[in-house]
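Margin note from the TA: students keep mixing up input and output lines. Inputs are the sequences; the output is the structure of the whole complex. Example:
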Amino acid sequence: MLIGGIMVITRKNPVHSALALIVTLLAQASIYLMLYAPFVAGVQIILYAGGIMVLFLFVIMLVSIDRSMKERQFNSQWVVGLIAATALGGLFIAVYTKGPSIFPDHVLPIVENDNTQKIATMLYGQYMFAFEIASLLLLVAIIGAVVMAKKKI
Amino acid sequence: MHEIIRYIESYLKTKDLTPGAAGNMFWVLVYIMLVFAGLSVAVIAMNWLERKILAHMQVRLGPMRVGPHGLLQPIADAIKLLLKEDIMPTEADGFVFWMAPFIVVLAAFTVFVVVPFGPTHAITDMNIGILFMLGVSSLSVLGIVMAGWASNSHYPLIGALRSSAQMVSYEVAMGLAVVSAILMTSLNATGTGTLSMIGIVQAQQAQGEWFIFKFFPLGLIAFFIFAVAMVAETNRAPFDLAEAESELTAGFHTEYSGFRWSLFFLAEYSAMIAVSSIAVTLWLGGWLRPFPNLLNGATWDLVFSLFPGVTFLFFAAICFYNTVRMPKHPLFRIQTIGLAGFGFVLALIGMVLFVPAVSMRVQDIFWFSAKVAGFMYMYIWYRGTFPRYRFDQLMQMGWKVLLPLGLGVLVLTASVALLQQKIWHP
């Protein structure tokens, strides 16, 4: 995942960056698997790596890349970037050293077999309202995209 | 040494598990080899069958020269492809050009890890089986896009973009049809369904009917949506605008020659077999023989267990009939002997399949393969019958016809299932 992430930001060719992003997303799916969430891993591969990245690649390929490949890659905000990265790194180190004392005492044992059923029960039972609101948000995004791309409304 | 033998035998003693579930690496590798070999044979057979069946549908004969009735034609094709010069365009992006067929083949073959040939005859049985299959087959779209772009020329790029747009659109319709089938697996006592492929077939067995006939006509419509979407997903006729010769030279695999092209071709046929296995598992009852619950009992089991042997003997009979019909010319002697030999091999396999010990184990695999073979025949039939869809018609059908139909089937299936649970069997 780290190699994929680094390659995303260092490649000059945007198509190579997109392919490295695909590698990163597949690695993330495997991290989900290690966290006993097979359903999320499967859905990540279907939607993210197999759907969203394809659309990314469409756009990258339809835009001429010759100009962008000739430009020198620059990084003029490195101070802010350094500060943000150190802050995040400090947070990681703090969580790692403090260890289990941050998290609640009794963590239920995670069973892998009914991950799908548990997600379904929670999504359509407890968090139904949030689910509907999220779908409404996506609908608004789709309608916005169609309206912006139409020649005549 | 004894440890190794005991490890190998320990799987044979477990009755109910696939090798992946049992964790036995040796048998996992054996099953992987078997599936890979079977798939390669199937792809070779598909090549020959496609040319012969298409030819007979077009009232001509197809390959007749290479072997008896063209049976060695796929081997000749393979040798030709291996010996062709491996061209890479100079402006092409080397790494991506090399990776693209690799990704497509990888995605097409990895899908077979969860395909259930029988209750324990799968490499493994993930509890997200169907999701895994859909996900990995959607990775092949990436390979096609990479192939089109890396060739650095117009026709492959347009072909790749069209092909991937088509595949992504029909994946949505496929997903909806799959969801309505999964919904039907939850109509059991506990009310929980399953995503695992073996679990889906066992749900059909427990509920006593194949899902294609369930809640008539909802199962049928869902099956129809999936059947159309799977043909579009694999870029086959009548949705093969992206790779048809008269449209875009050869679409995304124009610049590939020799072995690389054969990898695309291999991946296309494997993807066809993979989505057909999804359709067979979800709607047609997987490895179940026809009427497993209605016509049960020892005699019916015996009758249906004769089918594998009888099928091979039927093919052997066709071979012998054609041997007799061969021209009696000295130049045809080798072909006649070859055909007779092939007939003998088929007859031998048929005889072996009559032995009860073998037929007991091969039953499930036979019925599954027979159903998938039916789908392959339908694929070739579509290619010979339907004219090609224009690309905008194709996209329109994917989004404006199949998607609303899929949503409607899903909502109706859910409502009927709910009614059944609440009212008829509370």
